[in-house]
Design a protein that fits this description.
Blueprint (H helix, E strand, L loop, with lengths): L1 H17 L5 E4 L6 E7 L11 E3 L2 E3 L2 E3 L4 E6 L8 E10 L8 E4 L11 E9 L5 E6 L3 E5 L10 E8 L2 E12 L1 E7 L2 E7 L7 E9 L6 E6 L4 E6 L12 E7 L5 E12 L1 E3 L3 E5 L8 E3 L9 E2 L2 E6 L2 E2 L5 E12 L9 E4 L6 E7 L12 E5 L3 E3 L1 E5 L3 E8 L5 E9 L4 H4 L3 E4 L3 H4 L4 E9 L6 E7 L3 E3 L10 E7 L5 E7 L3 E6 L3 E7 L4 H4 L5 E7 L5 E5 L7 E4 L12 E6 L5 E7 L8 E3 L3 E6 L4 E6 L9 E3 L3 E6 L2 E2 L8 E8 L4 H32 L41 H5 L43 E3 L47
Parallel strand pairs: 7-9, 17-19, 34-36, 44-46
Antiparallel strand pairs: 1-6, 2-5, 2-7, 3-4, 3-6, 8-16, 9-15, 10-14, 10-16, 11-13, 12-13, 12-15, 14-17, 18-27, 19-25, 20-24, 20-27, 21-26, 22-23, 22-25, 28-33, 29-32, 29-34, 30-31, 30-33, 35-43, 36-42, 37-41, 37-43, 38-40, 39-40, 39-42, 41-44, 45-54, 46-52, 47-51, 47-54, 48-53, 49-50, 49-52, ...
């Protein structure tokens, strides 16, 4: 106790040494109904405590009532860090007249210590009396929870419904709110920071008749600007079954638009929550809207906006709240133009016009609105198909807006849509709008496992890669609509003639430059429903003879999806040679389950190469004289080792070295002379042995190749006639014995059967090996095409006769093959 007394004594001596300049005298007139409360600020600061010194007493807080005069000081040099002051004045308008007019700060800030000060005026009045708070310039600006004022000066205003307080809002300076009218009393609090030297309240109180609602807030615009306002008690609920109004003063040469930024509705038992507009000159006043409706815009002159609550469900009332913005700006040239958007013939389509994302700025930015029927305006507007829409724009710069559209194309009936082409074209009414089209997306939906899709562009497409990027004003973004599979970005000017996809796909036309309108005539895709296939996609490519064709696997940045297969059908012109090159030696893929394969198959020769993408080195640049397939099938890879491949195709004319041609001609001539000599030798030797018929493979000019007319005229037996000798000369029969290798074995091909060339294999890619097998990397040659390829009809095989003494008999054939009576026809 003695220690505490010594501390107080030392503090008192310190105060006395500070002098009279740090002592404050506060005098409150009798009957003023003013109370001054000096109390510790919260939270309290750690460290040495500070006390209020009054008449040699150290007090933690001090209350000064009306009619009292007190001199005080503080035991510390920074009391603003420890104490705050509240000055409250009670005004009773129920028992006597109200002190209307300008409100004074009593006591003045100069007679109070330099503390954070809050002046509170509590006015009580009858329910039938309307009180009006008028604010001088600068007017007030409403702020939301968690916001603060730059200068630290805030105004908190609340009303009363019976015994319940209602928070009208918190306001800063430099706004548009000029008056607030309330009924049944008002409580006004002005907070001034300790360093602020303001000596006026900045508002006055006036008497008004009953307003028959909770409050009226007046907002006045002198020029372009915006105001953000909130319903009472925001973000808590608006009082049940109450009505309030905002009145907006707008110069006649400006236009105003309303946008709801945030709202929620309660659960109503009676009535309906709504907003009502009173617009001078409107023939439908009041105009009633739901909170979820698009709100009016492009309004000239003053207007009112009212918020009406309802009788809420007592068990589950919900919350009615509203935060909105009013934007006032000069009318633009586009404000007087109306555009007709005819979507009456469209189906399953929507068009959205909205603001482009921009960085926030502290400066005033004029609004950009799109208006439906010139009155319902919003920063975004969605138009549905099946109707005609009239729209206009309230915007200083239309480049701040863009359009995004979506259309769904599906197959309702299998018979109806099979092979039917659908054109992916942007409607003309959209292109005539003065707003840039950003995205137009088509969602193409097919019955599962029944149909696939085929996309054919009006111009051959280029796949966007880093090596050859798209530089056109638009491109197509293609992605699966049911899985994480992005096929790529494609633009005109390439070599892709056709794209086939297995299942649902999203095709997005993305615009990059305003000059798209100049190229729109060349834009276009045609989609058809085709028989179902199992690969994710098939690209049909016809390379350009002047440029490389760069191609890459889907999901380039993330790797191909697991267990998917993609094919490229590369066409090679007859006079060209294609060089296939891969960008790296190994894929780097590591399979968790299954195997990853690549198949390169010549379509004409049916030669097939299979590579394990996990184990093998990718092939070196290879040359292909005929059209070929590239098929890539993925496994289930490890997350860190995905499959992505980039390759390119170049075309060069077919050429042959002159030296090779000369050597081939000379060597071939010498070989031919030697062969003819052997033939003559063996023929003469053969004639000496037998004269029963022509030698094997020797042309017989007397053979009749016509179909016999009457079997009875054919009298010779098979042994005595030439019916078993075909009127053709086969080189391999005549010169086959010359093809003997060094070991003495013959390397001659099969000569008994001639099989005509079957032509290209068709449009189906090669079938990959089983996904889980470990097929060896080998070069295989097979004569059989995949099952999906319809083979060319084979002509009847030509069979050459092999005379044998044991097999040739004297019996006659039942049906003669040749008629010797008709003239022979030479065979080609």
């Amino acid at each position: 106790m003695a220690g505490l007394t010594r501390e107080f004594t030392i503090a008192l001596l310190g105060v006395l040494l500070l002098g009279a300049a740090d002592a404050f005298e506060i005098a409150l007139p009798p009957g003023s109904n003013i109370t001054v409360l000096i109390k510790p600020r919260t939270p309290t600061l750690p460290g040495k405590p500070c006390y209020i010194l009054v008449s040699k007493r150290f007090l933690p807080k001090l209350t000064i009532n009306s009619g009292e005069r007190i001199t005080l000081a503080f035991s510390c040099q920074n009391p603003e860090h420890h104490f705050v002051a509240e000055i409250q004045k009670n005004i009773d308008c129920m028992s006597g007249p109200c002190p209307f007019g300008e409100v004074q700060l009593q006591p003045s800030t100069s007679s109070l210590p330099a503390l954070n000060r809050t002046y509170i005026w509590d006015v009580k009045a009858h329910k039938s009396i309307g009180l009006e708070l008028q604010f001088s310039v600068p007017r007030l600006r409403q702020i939301g929870p968690g916001e603060s004022c730059p200068d630290g000066v805030t105004h908190s205003i609340s009303g009363r419904i019976d015994a319940t307080a209602v928070n009208i809002g918190t306001f800063c300076s430099n706004g548009t709110v000029s008056r607030i009218k309330m009924q049944e009393g008002v409580k006004m609090a002005l907070h001034l920071p300790w360093f602020h030297s303001r000596n006026v309240s900045g508002f006055s109180i006036a008497n008004r008749s009953s307003i028959k609602r909770l409050c009226i807030i007046e907002s006045v615009f002198e020029d372009e600007g915006s105001a953000t306002l909130m319903s009472p008690n925001y973000p808590a609920g608006f009082p049940e079954d109450e009505l309030m109004t905002w009145q907006f003063g707008v110069p006649a040469h400006l236009r105003a638009s309303v946008s709801f930024l945030n709202f929620s509705v309660s659960n109503c038992e009676k009535k309906e929550e709504r907003v009502e507009y009173y617009i001078p000159g409107s023939t439908t006043n009041p105009e009633v809207f739901k909170l979820e409706d698009k709100q009016p815009g492009n309004m000239a002159g003053n207007f009112n906006l009212s918020l009406q609550g309802c009788d809420q469900d007592s068990q589950n009332p919900g919350i009615l709240r509203l935060r909105f913005q009013v934007l006032v700006q000069h009318p633009q040239n586009e404000s007087n133009k109306t555009y007709l958007v005819d979507l009456s013939n469209e189906q399953a389509m929507s068009l959205t016009i909205e603001l482009q994302p921009i960085k926030q700025s502290r400066r005033f930015v004029p609004g950009c609105f799109v208006c439906l029927e010139s009155r319902t305006c919003s920063t975004n507007l969605t138009l549905a198909s099946g109707a005609k829409h009239r729209i206009s724009f309230l915007c200083d710069d239309l480049t701040r807006l863009w359009m995004n559209a979506e259309k769904i194309i599906s197959c309702p009936e299998n018979r109806y849509c099979y092979r039917k082409p659908y054109s992916l074209q942007v409607p003309r009414d959209i292109l005539q709008l003065p707003v840039q089209l950003h995205d137009f997306s088509w969602k193409l939906l097919v019955p599962k496992d029944k149909f696939s899709l085929m996309l054919v562009p009006a111009q051959k497409l280029l796949q966007h890669t880093h090596e050859r990027a798209c530089n056109t004003s638009y491109s197509y973004l293609m992605a699966s609509a049911i899985q994480d599979l992005y096929f790529g970005s494609f633009c005109p000017g390439g070599s892709i003639e056709q794209i086939q996809v297995k299942q649902n796909i999203s095709v997005t036309l993305r615009i990059f430059a305003p000059n798209y309108h100049q190229e729109v005539s060349r834009q276009g895709l045609t989609v058809s429903f085709i028989p179902y296939f199992k690969e994710e996609s098939i690209f049909t490519v016809t390379p350009d003879t002047k440029n490389k064709v760069y191609l890459r696997t889907p999901n380039w940045d993330r790797g191909m999806p697991p267990l998917t297969s993609v094919s490229w059908n590369v066409s090679v012109p007859a006079n060209q040679v294609a060089c296939l090159t891969f960008s790296k030696e190994r894929t780097g893929v590591v399979c968790q389950t299954g195997r990853a394969f690549m198949i390169i198959q010549e379509q004409r020769t049916n030669a097939e190469e299979i590579f394990s993408l996990e184990e093998d080195v990718l092939p070196k640049p290879s040359f292909h004289h005929h059209s070929f397939w590239v098929n890539i099938s993925n496994c289930s890879p490890m997350s860190s080792k995905q499959l992505d491949l980039l390759f390119w195709v170049t075309l060069t004319p077919r050429t042959m070295d002159l030296t090779v041609i000369i050597i081939s001609v000379v060597g071939g001539g010498a070989l031919l002379l030697f062969a003819l000599g052997l033939i003559i030798f063996f023929v003469k030797k053969k004639k000496k042995k037998t004269n029963k018929g022509p030698a094997i493979g020797i042309y017989n000019g007397n053979v009749n190749t016509q179909i016999p007319r009457q079997p009875k005229k054919f009298q010779k037996g098979r042994k005595d006639n030439d019916s078993h000798v075909y009127a053709v000369i086969e080189d391999t029969m005549v010169y086959g014995h010359l093809l003997q290798d060094s070991s003495g074995s013959f390397l001659q091909p099969e000569v008994d059967t001639y099989r005509p060339f079957q032509g290209p294999l068709g449009d189906c890619p090669p079938s990959p090996p089983p996904i889980c097998s470990r097929a060896p990397t080998a070069k295989l040659t097979t004569d059989e095409g995949p099952p999906c390829f319809p083979s060319e009809p084979e002509s009847e095989p030509y069979t050459f006769s092999h005379p044998n003494k044991e097999n040739v008999g004297n019996g006659n054939t039942d049906i003669p093959l040749l008629d010797t009576q008709e003239p022979a026809e030479s065979a080609e």
